[in-house]
Amino acid sequence: MQRTMDIQLILTVLLIGLGAGMLSGLIGIGGGIIMVPALVLFLQYTQHQAQGTSLAVLTLPVVLLASLHYYTQCKLQGNPIDLRVVGLLAIGFVGGAFLGSKWAMTLSQQQLKQWFAVILMYTAIRMLAWDQWLIQWFKKS
């Protein structure tokens, strides 16, 4: 069902895109971490709709500009991006995204939200090195 695009909806969607795009360009995140929760919370999308929309946004034209900028800047700094690695990752990503989308459609909204939350929490714990703190805490106990 298509909803009418009033000015509030247009501005909300543009702000979600701007925030996700800025964070994507800044630290390499955006689609899953920003866009999916924002679409669910602000536009009442289902988890399936939000994830599909996020993936659709990540097509070539959107990321091309940021990728080219990183490529040229990294090359100038003497740390070029290895396009062979990009190609291999892309091959794996295409296959993985297809299989993941098929699997996601077999899960309920609640199960999919729970998986999404667990993966975000796990990532946060690892990125903040809280896993090491927890291991040390358990060893002392």
Mean pLDDT: 87
N-to-C span: 55 Å
Tally of alpha and pi helices: 7
Backbone shape: globular
Helix content: over 70%
| Tally of strands | 0
Radius of gyration: 18 Å
Main sheet record? none
Order of helices and strands: HHHHHHH
Low-confidence stretches: none
What percentage of amino acids are in beta strands?
under 5%
- Category by helix and strand content: mainly alpha
What does this protein look like?
- With 141 residues, the chain is mostly helical.
- Among the domains are: 1-58, no CATH class; 107-141.
- It contains 7 helices and no strands.
- The mean pLDDT is 87.
Short note summarizing the structure:
With 141 residues, the protein is mainly alpha-helical.
Name its key features.
mainly alpha; 141 residues
SSE order and pairing:
Layout: H1 7-27, H2 31-43, H3 47-57, H4 60-76, H5 83-104, H6 109-127, H7 130-140
Helix pairs in contact: 1-2, 2-3
